[in-house]
Amino acid sequence: NGGVRRMDKGGALGGADGGRITIGTGSALQFNTGGDLANNLTLAGGTFDLTGSGNHRIDSIVTLADGTDSTINLPNAVGNQILFVANPIGTPRIITGSGDLTINGPAAGGTAVIVFENPANNLSGVITLGDNVALENNPRATPSAGRTIGTADIVLAGDKAKLDMRDGATGSRRALDYAENDVIVTSAVASLVSSNGDGANVQNIYRM
Q1: pTM surpassing 0.90?
Q2: What is the pLDDT of residues 80-93, one digit of tens each?
């Protein structure tokens, strides 16, 4: 715990526990590379800064440690930077744990997007969206249906914070049950949008 570390190469680090990276209270990891992160990542009260430009993927298991409040910063979204998390294709990766998470976009110049992809995600804390950031509930697999935000509650706290619901559903004209996800809006300028994502089903209703 404590201090700032910078990672300039993508892929996976070796070591015990498959090269797991744990970011504890008072610590920060600057991911400053054009590659993806393949190490299992535990956020335990620290900060993950995506300082590398372009789109990236955390292609691993992400654990939000119980009883902690962690942060992901996406400061370089000059042209709408995207961070994909928890790939459901191939060897599934998930986001798990009951810790809280704050996600911040850039101070100015664009919107950052963080995409939760896996319907098997079982996170259950509070996700707070700061300025200029969008969170996508976006199951990017076949079928493209399901809840990827677990039972987490979502707080739209920042200027232009957005929750983007893209559940393709298993049919058309259905009520999609997201009643376990409380959505709290504290920002003067925020949005909640919905679509069928990559699916062909239409006219579904989100029950939140």
Answers
A1: yes
A2: 688 999 888 777 79
Q: Provide the b/e sequence for 47-74 (b: ≥16 CB within 10 Å).
A: bbbbbbeebbbbbbbbbbbeebbbbbbb
Say how far apart CA 202 and CA 73 lie, in whole Å. Answer: 34
Count CB atoms within 10 A of the CB of residue 96: 18
Say if residue 154's pLDDT is above 50.
yes
**R_g (Cα) of the chain, nearest Å:** 16
Tell me the C-alpha distance between 146 and 187, whole Å: 27
Phi-psi region of 117 (alpha: psi -120 to 50; beta: other; left: phi over 0): alpha
The 10s digit of each residue's pLDDT in 34-68 is: 788 988 999 999 999 998 888 899 989 999 999 99
Alpha-carbon distance of 126 to 116, in angstroms, equals: 15
Residue 189 carries which DSSP code? S
Cβ pair 13, 35 in contact under 8 A: no
Q: Cβ contacts of residue 119 below 8 Å, gap of 6+?
A: 88, 139, 141, 145, 146, 147, 148
Model confidence over 16-37: pLDDT tens digits? Answer: 445 789 999 999 999 988 788 9
Q: How many CA atoms lie within 13 A of 121 on its CB side?
A: 30
